[in-house]
Request: fold
Amino acid sequence: VGAVEAAARGGRDGVVLPADALGEARLVRGPVLYGVRTVFEALDVLAGKGRPDEGRRGPPPPRARGPEDADLREVRGQRQARRALEVAAAGGHNLLFEGPPGSGKTMLARRLPTILPSLEDAAALESARIRSAVRHLDVHDLHTPPFRAPHHSATAAGLVGGGSPVRPGELSLAHRGVLFLDELPEFDRRALEVLREPLEEGWVHLVRAGQAVRFPASFLCVGAYNPCPCGWAGLAEGRCRCPPGSVQRYRARLSGPLLDRFDLRVVLRPLTPEQLFDEGEGETSEAVRERVLAARARQAERQGRGRLNAGLREEELRAHAAYGAPERALLRRLVGQAALSARGLRRLERVARTVADLAGAPKVGALHLQEALGWRLLTDAAETAERGGGAASG
Ligand SMILES: [Zn+2]
Reply:
């Protein structure tokens, strides 16, 4: 994709390329393509005897979802978690799931791309450029936001990219989509460190062989972890077999500054068969996506295109919240009684702004703050782990 784009920019009339690469090269409008299988065919093209490619050009039509696709409809129960996905998608908030094995963390995370807006042509091409550099390209799937779930044994280089020539890593493959990090505390500390730059700037910067390269890496991050190494602390009376101290050490691996990038935390409980049965089918991804799109449109109108609530600075946040006297009083009470830190308060306000946008409310009201506070109360344990990690890293 990159080479054909370069040829197009350079005003070339035609490009000779391996026939296998025609599919992705057709994404780029412009030069005539000649797909060849042998050197002799290439020479024919140069001699003016080649047959130009006749495939359809330009980005493919927007996604048409088939029945084989994952859909939120299949998630039964988990009302809190479904709502968290919706808020995350609407405001661009990174999301943390804490829960034992089998509580649906992966199933939920996999469905986050299905409620994100489809990639527009420019974004689809940008994503295709990255994916074609590492040969992860499904040409039929270009408008669906990517979902990447690197294993916790992934190295820092595997995440940010590397090699010669330099290739993008998992963080860039997730560009415009979702990066899912299951078993977050099991990741190597250095691998977690490299997350911070893309989470803040949407780019990864690499220096390889004296050459500076940067790759786009703007994604929604979903982290998941078990309550303890075995997965059952605080649940299913007596099932946790972790020695004392190991639970704390496990949680302390998540550093405070990293956790600070996650606005939403949800604690998942294992569901009983009855709960699964009673709840019935959930809403479809399409229905949820409609609300996400509406909430994003409100943010674009207020903050500018592409600016989501999760990226608002403190002063912008206050300006766009337009609190009245009751909301300001509530916030003061929260800081006093709930001992909310400045960071915790910012997270809460960002989430509350998104909750208000989902409700179509121009101002952030007490109810929106209450819901955002609810997310926080659900996650006291994570907050404690954060304090431990924060203290350890100074
Ligand atoms: Zn345990």
Summary: The chain is about 45% helix and 10% strand. The radius of gyration is 24 Å. The first helix runs from residue 2 to 9. The CA atoms of residues 2 and 229 lie 44 Å apart.
